[in-house]
Structure to design on (1387 residues):
């Protein structure tokens, strides 16, 4: 994980940028690729994206800091986005958050001591029919109960073991 | 459950996604074939217009009318963009559609692109919809291999390329001009209108933005005709079916397809199984977080664009979030307002700072620290934010606040009088 | 020209005017933050709301976003609108610190003004305020983000208007942040404009910090003395110290912005070694004694050797009135040996321009509105920074801009660049005029043909040439090209880039008189025994400083009038201290022949900071002001003629005697200035062929740089942190041939001097040319730009050792 993006991927992105009429169109994709590989986007990742896209780090940072799903700070191996929007709120989102806080021993924006989980609030995940819901990585989990949460956490932390 | 015809969900099976073979077997791509082989682009637009299809992204603008403003004859770059941002709380219908039957969208986009003579289209999907993105990716590959996508589609001479764009969060990307900025890799603040996207959209070229569900309706209209589509709705002026995503305090919270004009009470009782835990219905958001609350008084209201507007609300995305009698409406409004506050793009003052002021006031009232002055202050915030922001986000945020002060003033006052939330 | 009614008054405005501007014309100023004339309307702050009562638009709308239309009836006093504006201010103030007394913007803060104007008097929000960390943005700009009201003006100025790519908008919702990717110096040469455009105390002038409150400053409209464009400025002084400069506005020239050289070049006024008292043979004397001594010694030399043994040297740094007084002094003394520039080629180029520009003259505003620009031998960022911004605005508006220049000319916008050796610029001009590409090959011919086609097809074409690279012959060709490209229905404009704030004025006075080369030869032969030097430093400004040194050394008498501690002062027997631009009044004629006046901002004097040793208030009481002796040069020169005249009288006399300056009497400060009347000069004959290196040889080209090479700004301490290190720019092909790598030390052998310096290797400069940007006060001090390509030899320093 120390490497921000493997060289083949850097080359592949650069090739896509060459001849592209609007290279900045790819900025979110490049940032997401860096994040997928490195877990989050460090300063050097912003600089790498700028280099790939032929722009300045500031121009990339303007975009990276707008989106909430681009992590500009270190996160754990899994990021938990708990929905705090209206449908989940109406069906116990606050209890879900309380349970997660207690289990993981962390608050919003923090990472568990074992480096496994980072807890973040999120707006509606589009799983309102299965409220309360949360998203871990790119997977959405609905109909959360304490038992289900425990099972999900166990599975995720097993997979995410360092 | 009900005898209503299903159109968009006719192929939907629980937990399954329909891909090309099954889609073709169910009559898929007949609309595209018909449009390309037998209709001119203008005829397609005219049919969609005659069908009375209205935008399913929330604003309800007549789709055919929008297309008729598009300079389809103008040579050069033009774009069709599918808006799959779907981030307004309570709204999850586009996801259900893409999980069930992604080719419908692709076929709809190809027909729309033909009508608009746009050689390139983008499908913009929100971050959280990776499952949908994979379906779309697979469906695009299938369509390309089958000759529905690419150059000279079905030998018609019409060529069209569709690209998938995965976003990275933020509700404002759903606003069409912010979405275009996002696609271009700019900061996704909304653009001022005019110029409208039809004149100056993606990369400065004519562009039409439509919602996922809107576009998915198009093949069916082309296959079955405008009259058939008109006839699907229960209201006189309405047209078509609508995906209703249910959520909140109901026994069941499915996403169901029903004709436009179904009464609110029927949706709640028949499809939501009634309010949960044997409680009474108090209020609901009829179509997403930005739509003013409805109450028991609206139980028989037909769910359609015009009927809801007449009831001081909006159909929005028709995703209904129900609140039971135990719900504190101040707390619910605070939750809603905090969402809009957090998702403000930060461009204009009434939204960026005004919504923070509203949250501060609501929080003060909800936590029992409210004073009698806070109520008129909340009213003057509402009065001065409504209609004064740069884009419709802050306008939407005022929906629930307005309804709170109109419908639940006694509850607000009770908080102040008691110095605590009466529901706690 | 729609006519509309605002608050019951009717007003007619040009098409395309927005309603906010229309109201301003009626004297109705509605609070606004995000709208700015140069930046346009974006509708972000929502403060400029008005009620549209009747006409094509209805309801409460943002006036900046509505174009005035016939029949509109608008109210700014409507109760709901007034209430709304007060709310906007209240929202903006939610997070704003309530500590105006300690804010550096205090007193000149638009947020303060608008808060009062908007009627927000009572704070209702009692929640927590959002706070931010600040960034270190380098030597010029202080950053205090907590004061931000998110009007986006800074980012729009920096990125959109100025083309900077290292500063912008970060974050979202209530946490939007205006800053850089990381701490570090703002890279744009126009960064200082952030101070002017930010309506709050987020961006303040770092060099000015903790010096004065705005209301304690003495300010007056002035003209920037740091290049030939003559941007409008407003210097501010206090306690006998010039403490800062902010941009003035002149829609014809700079618009609303200035460059960092112009903003931070003011430090020359407080230079510790600045001449402060009249000196005769090193002895402090009073003015009467000094003037008497000067006259007596001049008279003695004239008596012994005749009037032509006295020569006078003016300069482009001195104002028009001072140079004119120099001319009348020469007449009084009976000598025709009066020259107005120490650098002969620059002198002749300026005279060529002044003689031939005529109706082709184009202002910076014309450039901004142009649809096709050719820049040939001109490097705007180095030679006339605001020209770079004007070109950018043209390009943003859809113009095409082509650059023909041996240097790697970089502009903050898209341009096409043909790197052509300096000795071929004339050929290019000729080819463009004759539509004949036979002397060019392949890509070059294609490029030139494209430029010609674009210029011919454009509606507002302008050709722009730099004096230093074109020389007199090239400047003449440039003017000729503009004439050829002009058609009955559509003229082609021309602009020459000159080095000094008054180069054009000096050239007009010079007419067909002698040049400095002639003068220095006469000094060396002994024909000239005495020189009166007006704000000129031939030892660094002459085309051949060594030759100038020999000449000065032969003089019996050098009388030097100056405000800068120049090298030339070291040779002077009599030193007469003059005021700097901000301490006197006068007129500069800019590079398009526009006369502009500057007013006196503050009286000369030794800054209190120095006399008081930093302590305040001063403990020592004295009757006179220390360091107050410097006088305006025109006053001294009039004194030498035995006259005591006011500036107005001198101007009247000049306007009467020389019709070209007839506009001088009516010239108002803070106006757009006035072009000089037709020059009525004959184009001077042009001479000298450029040195053309043979195959395999390199030519040395010395040129100006943004920082470190302009004369007056060189003496300014606030610019010290950005002074560049000397370097030699080589084309990659030449570098390859020489075997040098980037950054490597090379030894440059030239007629001027032998120096060792690092190289920068470029692919976008002209092959065969070694480019040396001038850096005053460094090891390449002796190299002067504007002398054409020179023979040189370059070795790797490792080989040498
Ligand atoms: C704040 C905001 C968020 C929006 N989000 C969405 C969205 O997620 N999906 C969508 O289709 N339309 C959304 N819209 C509406 C779009 O701007 C646009 O009207 C719509 O995509 C047009 O498509 P339609 O006519 O097919 O509905 C949003 C509008 C606003 C103001
Ligand atoms: S209302 Fe204003 S701040 Fe809010 S999202 Fe729209 S443009 Fe941005
Ligand atoms: S820093 Fe100043 S100019 Fe920039 S947005 Fe904030 S208040 Fe406006
Ligand atoms: S461009 Fe020239 S005149 Fe204008 S501020 Fe800069 S140095 Fe001064
Ligand atoms: S509100 Fe939580 S997923 Fe929609
Ligand atoms: S000045 Fe008009 S909205 Fe800001």
């Amino acid at each position: 994980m120390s490497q921000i993006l493997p060289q083949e991927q850097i080359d592949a992105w650069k090739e896509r940028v060459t001849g592209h009429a609007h290279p900045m169109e790819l900025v979110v994709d490049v940032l997401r690729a860096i994040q997928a590989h490195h877990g989050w986007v460090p300063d050097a990742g912003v600089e790498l994206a700028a280099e790939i896209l032929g722009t300045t780090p500031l121009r990339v940072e303007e975009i990276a800091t707008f989106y909430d799903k681009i992590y500009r700070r270190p996160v754990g191996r899994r990021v938990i986005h708990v929905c705090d929007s209206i449908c989940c709120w109406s069906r116990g989102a606050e209890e879900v958050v309380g349970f997660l806080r207690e289990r993981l021993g962390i608050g919003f924006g923090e990472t568990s001591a074992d480096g496994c989980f980072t807890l973040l609030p999120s707006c509606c995940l589009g799983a309102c029919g299965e409220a309360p819901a949360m998203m871990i990585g790119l997977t959405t989990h609905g109909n959360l109960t304490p038992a289900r949460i425990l099972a999900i956490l166990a599975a995720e932390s097993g997979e995410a073991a360092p | 459950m009900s005898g209503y015809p299903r159109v968009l969900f006719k192929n939907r099976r629980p937990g399954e996604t329909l891909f090309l073979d099954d889609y073709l077997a169910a009559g898929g791509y007949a609309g595209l074939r018909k449009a390309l082989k037998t209709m001119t682009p203008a005829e397609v637009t005219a049919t969609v217009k005659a069908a009375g299809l209205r935008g399913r992204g929330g604003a309800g603008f007549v789709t055919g009318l929008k297309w008729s403003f598009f300079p389809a004859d103008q040579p050069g770059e033009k774009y069709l963009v599918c808006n799959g941002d779907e981030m307004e709380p309570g709204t999850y219908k586009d996801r259900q559609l893409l999980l069930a039957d992604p080719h419908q969208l692709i076929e709809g986009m190809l027909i729309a692109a033909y009508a608009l003579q746009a050689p390139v289209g983008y499908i913009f999907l929100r971050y959280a919809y990776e499952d949908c993105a994979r379906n779309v990716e697979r469906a695009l590959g299938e369509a390309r291999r089958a000759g529905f996508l690419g150059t000279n589609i079905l030998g018609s001479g019409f060529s069209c390329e569709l690209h998938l764009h995965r976003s990275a969060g933020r509700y404002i990307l759903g606003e069409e001009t912010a979405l275009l900025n996002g696609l271009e890799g700019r900061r996704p603040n909304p653009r001022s209108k005019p110029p409208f996207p039809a004149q100056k959209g993606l990369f400065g070229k004519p562009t039409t933005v439509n919602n996922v569900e809107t576009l998915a309706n198009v093949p069916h209209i082309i296959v079955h005709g405008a009259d058939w589509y008109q006839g699907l709705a229960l209201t006189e002026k309405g047209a078509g079916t609508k995906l209703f995503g249910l959520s909140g305090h109901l026994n069941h919270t499915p996403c169901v397809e029903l004709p436009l004009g179904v009464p609110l009470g029927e949706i709640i009782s028949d499809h939501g199984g009634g309010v949960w835990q044997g409680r009474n219905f108090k209020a609901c958001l009829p179509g997403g977080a930005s739509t003013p609350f409805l109450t028991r008084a609206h139980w028989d209201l037909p769910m359609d664009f015009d009927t809801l507007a007449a009831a001081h609300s909006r159909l929005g995305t028709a995703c209904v979030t129900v609140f039971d009698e135990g719900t504190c409406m101040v707390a619910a409004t605070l939750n809603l307002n905090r969402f809009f506050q957090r998702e403000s793009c930060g461009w204009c003052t009434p939204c960026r700072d005004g919504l923070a002021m509203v949250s501060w006031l609501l929080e003060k009232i909800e936590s029992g620290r409210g004073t009698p002055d806070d109520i008129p202050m909340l009213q003057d915030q509402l009065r001065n934010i409504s209609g004064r922001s740069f884009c419709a986000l802050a306008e939407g945020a005022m929906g629930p606040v307005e309804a709170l002060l109109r419908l639940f003033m006694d509850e607000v006052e009770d908080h102040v009088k008691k110095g605590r939330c009466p529901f706690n | 020209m729609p006519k509309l009614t605002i608050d019951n008054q009717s007003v007619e405005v040009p098409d395309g005017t927005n309603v906010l501007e229309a109201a301003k014309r009626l004297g109705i100023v509605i609070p606004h933050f995000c709208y700015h004339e140069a930046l346009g309307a974006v509708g972000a702050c929502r403060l400029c709301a008005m009620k549209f009562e009747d006409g094509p638009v209805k309801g409460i709308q943002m006036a900046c976003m509505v174009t005035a239309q016939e029949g509109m009836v608008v109210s700014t006093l409507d109760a709901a609108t007034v209430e709304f504006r007060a709310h906007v201010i209240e929202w903006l103030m939610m997070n704003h610190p309530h500590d105006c007394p300690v804010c550096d913007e205090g007193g000149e803060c638009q947020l303060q003004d608008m808060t009062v104007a908007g009627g927000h008097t009572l704070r209702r929000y009692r929640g927590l305020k959002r706070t931010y960390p600040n960034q270190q943005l380098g030597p010029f700009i202080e950053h205090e983000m907590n004061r931000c009201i998110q009007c986006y003006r800074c980012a729009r100025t920096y990125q959109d208007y100025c083309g900077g790519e290292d500063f912008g908008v970060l974050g979202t919702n209530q946490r939007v942040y205006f800053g850089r990717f990381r701490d570090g110096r703002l890279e744009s040469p126009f960064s200082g404009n952030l101070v002017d455009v930010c309506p709050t105390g987020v961006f303040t002038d770092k060099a000015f910090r903790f010096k004065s409150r705005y209301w304690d400053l003495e300010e007056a409209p002035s003209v920037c003395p740091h290049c030939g464009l003559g941007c409008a400025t407003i210097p501010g002084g206090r306690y006998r110290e010039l403490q800062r400069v902010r941009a003035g506005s002149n829609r014809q020239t700079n618009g609303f912005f200035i460059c960092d050289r112009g903003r931070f070049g003011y430090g020359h006024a407080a230079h510790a070694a600045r001449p402060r008292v009249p000196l005769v043979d090193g002895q402090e004397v009073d003015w009467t004694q000094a003037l008497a001594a000067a006259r007596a010694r001049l008279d003695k030399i004239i008596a012994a050797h005749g009037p032509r043994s006295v020569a006078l040297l003016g300069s482009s740094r001195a104002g028009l009135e001072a140079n004119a007084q120099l001319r009348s002094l020469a007449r009084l003394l009976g000598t025709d040996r009066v020259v107005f520039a120490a650098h002969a080629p620059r002198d002749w180029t300026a005279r060529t321009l002044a003689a031939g520009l005529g109706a082709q003259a184009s202002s910076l505003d014309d450039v901004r509105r142009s649809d096709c620009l050719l820049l040939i031998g001109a490097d705007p960022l180095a030679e006339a920074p605001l020209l770079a911004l004007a070109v950018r605005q043209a390009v943003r508006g859809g113009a095409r801009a082509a650059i023909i220049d041996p240097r790697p000319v970089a502009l903050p916008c898209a341009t096409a660049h043909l790197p052509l050796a300096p000795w071929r610029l004339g050929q290019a001009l000729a080819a463009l005029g004759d539509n004949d590409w036979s002397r060019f090959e392949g890509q070059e011919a294609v490029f030139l043909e494209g430029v010609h086609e674009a210029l011919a097809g454009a509606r507002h074409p302008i050709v722009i040439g730099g004096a230093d690279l074109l020389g007199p012959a090239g400047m003449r060709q440039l003017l000729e090209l503009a004439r050829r490209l002009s058609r009955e229905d559509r003229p082609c404009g021309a602009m020459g880039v000159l080095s000094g704030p008054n180069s054009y004025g000096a050239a007009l006075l010079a007419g067909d008189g002698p040049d400095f080369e002639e003068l220095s030869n006469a000094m060396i032969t002994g024909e000239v025994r005495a020189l009166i030097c007006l704000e000129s430093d031939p030892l660094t400004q002459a085309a051949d400083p060594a030759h100038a040194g020999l000449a000065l050394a032969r003089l019996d008498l050098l009388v030097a009038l100056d405000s800068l501690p120049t090298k030339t002062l070291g040779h002077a027997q009599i030193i007469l201290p003059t005021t700097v631009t901000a301490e006197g009044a006068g007129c500069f004629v800019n590079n398009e022949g526009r006369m502009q006046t500057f007013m006196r901002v503050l009286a000369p004097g030794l800054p209190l900071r120095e006399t008081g040793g930093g302590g305040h208030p001063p403990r020592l009481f004295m009757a006179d002001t220390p360091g107050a002796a410097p006088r305006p040069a025109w006053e001294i020169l009039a004194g030498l003629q035995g006259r005591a005249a006011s500036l107005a009288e001198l101007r009247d006399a000049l306007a009467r005697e020389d019709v070209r300056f007839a506009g001088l009497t009516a010239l108002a400060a803070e106006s757009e200035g006035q072009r000089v009347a037709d020059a009525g000069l004959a184009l001077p004959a042009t001479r000298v062929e450029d040195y053309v290196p043979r195959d395999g040889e390199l030519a040395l080209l010395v040129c100006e740089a943004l920082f470190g090479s302009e004369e007056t700004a060189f003496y300014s301490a606030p610019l010290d942190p950005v002074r560049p290190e000397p370097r030699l720019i080589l084309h990659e092909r030449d570098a390859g041939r020489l075997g040098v790598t980037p950054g490597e030390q090379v030894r440059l052998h030239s007629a001027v001097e032998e120096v060792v310096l690092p190289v920068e290797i470029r692919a976008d400069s002209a092959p065969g040319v070694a480019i040396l940007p001038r850096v005053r006060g460094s090891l390449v001090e002796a190299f002067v730009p504007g002398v054409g390509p020179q023979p040189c030899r370059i070795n790797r320093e490792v080989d040498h050792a």
